């Protein structure tokens, strides 16, 4: 597997390059869209392969573009907006909507996975297994996911499908499933109400029109009442894969007792969209350092009492900071009197400190009328929160000073005790700042191979 060394790689382009081949066999749609296909993430070729029959290395693969274009349209909204499930162990339905091999139709497709993080579409790729018995063995993979802005990813899909549709028109194949579905998608994109409806379905993990009318009405109600940024973070957790009726668990958060506070620091409410060009952890580190500067503590440990004080939680209320039960979400709900009702989920002291810090970071990047949301998802916002909490509790400069160039397991354990964070947090900071290396055998979020 070829290596992409930087974990901060963000590319603004994905290309599905195709050159038409002679007419092949099969149905008219398949036969007339046979092409030499090359898929690039930035300048990196994901279709470079060894052709077993010709025993040659090629940058393209010969497939029919029709099934790939049809798969893109069938999963259009989920590809653009649905994130990885919190368990990183998606079911078959999720995989069929996000793994390119699901285009199927008897062709050997590369193992490429797409999942949204709310601002970008993350792209993973793994090479074929060494003992692959198929006619094509893909050589390249990505050691790190590549991020494509949702706008650029959508544009690449649109251009690819348009090219296939135009090819079909040349052969007077205009009344196809592809052309009908493409027309529907284009129309839905032009109408705001339809666009919001489809996005909410996708966020919950539903295909178009699969979700019940009652659930969609409730989703739209939440969207109008609490805003897009709130629903975008909660819908994937409490959607199709939730243990209860989709989204209904949100009512428990609304009715929970909670702990009330009003953040006291002034470095707040930036309310700015970082944009897909900004790497979440870079923004997070900057924000964490700004808040540390405000409280006059650049590199030393921060005690738990200070975290509560920054969130404006009274000492008498601290003992009430208890989860309402096992939950995959904690939230901060704005109230009419300008306070925030916090509904926590962490019990362990270290986990609790990290959760409090995530609230601080989220508050700095969230508009005043939006919920603070803390989940295990890999959305841009959750990545930002985790990076903020790590830097705020264990600033990299203070960490390096404490370690004195000793990166042994024992030193990392001591640092974790000193800053009262987990050893995983210390290790992640050292890896992300390139002080130590982390070797991965397979950089995909889960096993995406079928052979």
Gist of the model:
With about 450 residues, the chain is of the alpha+beta class. About 40% of the residues lie in helices and about 15% in strands. The protein has three domains: about 15-185, no CATH class; about 190-250; about 255-430, no CATH class.
Structure description:
By secondary structure, this protein is an alpha+beta fold. The chain has 3 domains: 14-186, no CATH class; 192-248; 256-432, no CATH class. The chain contains 18 helices and 14 strands. The strands form 4 sheets. Strands 1, 2, 3 and 6 form a 4-stranded antiparallel sheet that branches. The chain has a 4-stranded antiparallel sheet with strand order 11-13-12-14, sandwiched between helices. Helix 8 (213-226) crosses helix 9 (228-234).
